[in-house]
Amino acid sequence: MNLICFECPSCGAELPPRDPRGEQRCEYCGARFAPEGAGGAKTSAGAALDRAALLAAIAALDETKLELELTRAELAEELAQENAAAAGEPPSRRARRRARRRERRSERSVLRRIFLATIELFVFVATLASVIAALVAGGIVDLDDLPFLGEDEREAIEELRDRLSQDGVDPWGGPPLLTTIAGEPAVVARVRREGEDLLFVDAYALADGRRLWRIGPLSDGPEGLEHVRFALAGDFVVVGASTGRTLFVHGRESAERVRAVELGRDLAYLCGVSPTQVYVRVEGRGHQLLDPHSGALSRAAAAPAGCEPEQGDSLDPSWVDVGRLRGELREGTVVTRALLDPGGAGGALFVRSDDAQATPRLLGFSPPEGSGSRLRLKPALLRWTDEGIEGAKSWPVAGTLAGGELVLAAWEDQAGALWLGAWALADGSARWRVALGAELVLGVWAGEGYVLVGRSHVVEVRGIDDGELVTVIGEQP
Q: For residues 268 and 62, which has the higher predicted lDDT (pLDDT)?
């Protein structure tokens, strides 16, 4: 067992197979975590691993690495002896000791070589399967071009190709943004048509899912999809071009283009700061601020509050890196998720004991002291504790804080499904709870009287007062 699939403890995404040793990093939200702190783990074949099995697998890999290093050292010593014998020099005392030790271990060497050969074969087969799946999913190779595949293998790859299809709402370049257009609540989101390598920025009415306008297409190739980002600033929508080196400023009401701004280098991130400013991070040029009214760019010493790099890589605007937390609340516990209300109404923590099998507890707290890279929490700031999540064996997947409300999506072990709930941040009183099924949840956002639930290809619009489904934006492939 070489490669392990981890579940990110911050955003809940299942990560691609990887070496389980050392610190891990989530490609989706940027969170870093130790292997034993992952939300879940399983082998590349799909078999679930508990904490003991995961640690045993890591220990086995370390032992294999040590044996490989010993074998390499022995081969180097053997080569040195051969060179010395060829030169007519007697072997050294250390060389003779190594030779005797090698003879004693000769009986075990055959089994070790068989074990290593098996591991190498497994890695080769897994790598070959991944390459073939990627080529087929990308349309480079057709299944009919692979005569060695049986019917079962073809069906499995077809299913994988369907799963990789990202037609519909695409939240990976930034979360959907809530706003008001023509006097009605609306959402602005990226929409992808994977088969044609096209990407758009669309606005939809929240009340009925009606599309209000479309900007694009913004990309004509797969290389440009990752550069298309957008941000709202007052009466403007700022969109990054597919080349990553141009910004386009559009009117929020009609999506009509107002101006273009050349960056000179690749765009890394956009973030709306205020009605008159957009934070722009450009590769190799640090922090800049854009005035959408004039198109002028100015230098900034650091990212504005709410646009820090760790938040820029997440799908939840109220998400806080747990590494920023300091104080007594962390002693003897593990903080699995932290949310902080952008409006200063307080925050929520999900903590559990050091036992990896313990389910989280939900804690509400007043605004912490400090700012920037460190936030200090004290017991006196604790407002309330909700034990219901722990009793139901529920694990937080995504959540947000907005307008004094906590909205959370969580996975319940007993039901084997996701649910969505809301609490009053002031006292922790539960407001409502609805079932979400088992489909993947990528993010949760709230505002303008609605709750948005990001799924793999669509955004569900729900009422903020009861959580009931209002409409669905996008289509499942």
A: 268
Instruction: Dump pLDDT digits (tens) for 335-378.
Output: 777 888 777 778 888 877 766 566 677 888 887 776 655 677 77
Q: Rounded distance, CA 66 to CA 361, Å?
A: 41
**CA neighbor of 341 nearest in space, from 362, 324, 366, 363:** 366
Name the helix (H) or strand (E) containing 109.
helix 106-137
3-state secondary structure (DSSP) of residue 31: coil
- Note the helical H segments in 87-105: 93-104
The owner of tokens 């956009």 is 270
Using an 8 Å Cβ cutoff, are 350 and 360 in contact? Answer: yes
| Residue with tokens 């969109």, as numbered in its chain | 239
Instruction: Give the pLDDT confidence of 139-154 residue by residue, as tens digits.
Output: 455 555 555 555 665 5
Query: CA of 299: how far to CAs of 140, 202, 304, in Å?
Result: 43, 30, 12
- ∠ Cα 77 83 86 (to 5°): 140
* pLDDT tens per residue across span 158-170: 554 554 445 556 6
Q: Where are the domains of the chain?
A: 4-104, 168-312, 319-438
Q: Backbone phi, then psi, for 58, in 5-degree steps?
A: -65, -40
DSSP state of 18: B
Between 2.40.128.630, 3.40.50.300, 3.40.190.10, 2.40.50.140, what CATH number should domain 168-312 receive? 2.40.128.630
Contact predicate 206/189, CB 8 Å = no
- Is residue 239 predicted with pLDDT exceeding 60? yes
Single-letter amino acid code for the residue at 355? D
The closest alpha carbon to 11, from 307, 432, 321, 282, belongs to 321
Query: Are 450 and 463 within 8 A, CB to CB?
Result: yes
Instruction: Establish how many alpha carbons lie within 13 A of residue 361's alpha carbon, considering only the half-sphere containing its beta carbon.
Output: 15
Helix axes 51-86, 93-104, angle to 10 degrees: 130
Give me the mean pLDDT over the 462-470 stretch.
91
CB of 322 closer than 8 Å to CB of 351:
no
Is pLDDT at 1 greater than 60 in this prediction?
no
